[in-house]
Structures are given as structure tokens and as C-alpha cells.
Amino acid sequence: MCTLTWLLNNDGYEVFFNRDEQRSRPKAALPIYDAPTESIFPIDPGQKDSTGKGTWIAVNKNGLSLCLLNNYQDSIKAGDGDNFTSRGLLIPKLIHLNAPEKIIDSLEAINLKDFQPFSLCIFPSNLSMMNNRVFTCTWNGEVLTQGFAVSPVISSAVQLKDVIQSRTELFKHLAAQKNLNTDSLLDFHCSHKPEKGKLSVCMHRDDASTQSLSHIRAGKNISFAYHDGPPCKNNHWTRVFIPE
User: Fold this and answer.
1) What is the pLDDT of residues 16-25, one digit of tens each?
2) pLDDT above 50 for 50
3) Can you give the residue range of the structural domain that contains 127?
4) 188: in domain
5) Is residue 178 part of a domain?
6) What's the pTM?
7) Contact status, residue 189 vs residue 180, Cβ threshold 8 Å
């Protein structure tokens, strides 16, 4: 379960991403600047005994961002001999590319049968109020399709229809009540409406919960702010900047 939104500005954009995971999953490492890819991203150690070391979100030095959500409904049940590659490895392979078209071409050249289904959102470096298209690539286990994303983007392993309806209605209500801005979107990602549980954006279940909130700013300066743990718990952020 994850929730992704964004805010378009005159000179760039901001991304907000709640990552929801099983409580038993190993904790992700805090984001760092990765010199080989000239980008910032947290590192997901994956499940126990996994060597994935991938990520679900990153921004590069040019201001292009990638966000990956699991496609639980199309997930393939692993059988004897199945050995899927971690989806989190896709972003480190793609984040150095600086155009959505190049990323899409690279995805089409990869043998995606090695990966469980996913949706990848691509935020171009020139994204702004004037250039407002967020690209998506969705792999359902058989076909890779392309399109454009509408905020919010939501994934859930449990009651997807109900989760999407609840969180989307809250988002629309927020947008109707006041102009969306950084503070209102951060409040949205910390929300327990309609109640603290599986439907709330800051999600809490017995087996899973929101594990982090990421906030990317891309414009004249590029930064990655990361809240480790449920955003309702405290207001402690780790901030990383692209070196000038």
C-alpha cells in the first residue's frame, strides 16, 4: 500500500510519497547522494536473505524523479523455480536517464518477465505548471503500457477499491476546500481520516503500516526530505541536497 501525490509550481514540482510495508520488513536505509548515478534515494534492503538493495523513489541531479508502486492485483504467485528480480533495482538502473522517452525505451528493452508487476511514475526534469504531464509505465506481468498519471496514485494489497475511494475523496475534499500547497499535502499524507486504519493515508494495520514519507523538491534547487517511520509519530526529517 502506497500513496503518491505531487504539486506543480511555476519553476518545478514537489513529490510526496507514503510507503506502506509489512511491519516485518527490514527497515530501509536513509536517503543518500549516490555519486555514480548522481541522484538521491533511500535503499531498501528487501526481505530477509534478499540482495535487492534497490529503492522505490529517487531524484537525479537534473530534477527527474522516479516513483515505483507495486501492482499487487496483477502479482504473479511464485511457484517452483520462480525467481523474480527485485523491482527496486529498476530505479537505480534508470535514474541516470534524463528523458521519459529514454526511460520508456530502456524498460521496453528489459526482460520484464523477471519482475513482479509494478507501476512506475516518471516526473520529467522540466515538469511544472506549464509542462504538467507525469508519465506512467505499468507492467501487469504480460504487457507494458504507457500513460499519464493523475494525483493521487494509490496501491494496496488489501481492499484496493475501498482504499482508492477513501483516499481520493479525501484528496478531492482537500483540493476543494483550499489551494493545494506543501503544508496541505503534508497534512494529507499524515492523515488518519476517516479513522486510523487500513483506509487512512497514514496507514495502520496489525501486519503493516506506513513506514516512511518522502518529499522531493525539484526546481532551482533539488532536495530530498525523508521521514523515517509513520509521519504521524513525530516531525523529524532527514534532508539531502544535490551537490552544486
Assistant:
1) 999 998 888 8
2) no
3) 2-158+207-241
4) no
5) no
6) 0.94
7) no
The rounded distance, in Å, linking the Cα atoms of 48 and 75 is: 20
The reply to whether 40 falls in a domain is yes
**Of 118, 143, 135, which is closest to residue 56 (Cα–Cα)?**
118
Structural domain includes residue 166: no
**Contact at 8 Å (CB) between 13 and 127?**
yes
Domain tally for the chain?
A: 1
The stretch 83-111 carries a mean pLDDT of: 95
Virtual torsion, Cα 86, 87, 92, 96, nearest 10 deg? 150
DSSP letters along 98-144, please? -SHHHHHHHHHHS-GGGB--EEEEEE-TT-SSSS-PPEEEEE-SS-E
Omega into 42 within 30° of 0, i.e. cis? Answer: no
C-alpha span between 149 and 163 (Å, rounded): 18
Task: Give CA separation, 210 vs 145, 146, 202, 230, in Å.
Answer: 28, 28, 6, 5
pLDDT given for residue 52 in this prediction: 52
Query: How many C-beta neighbours within 10 Å does residue 79 have?
Result: 6
State the amino acid at position 239 in one-letter form.
R
Least confident of 39-53, 185-199, 209-223, 227-241: 39-53
Instruction: Tell me the mean pLDDT in the region 148-152.
Output: 97
Q: What is the CATH number of the domain that holds 140?
A: 3.60.60.10
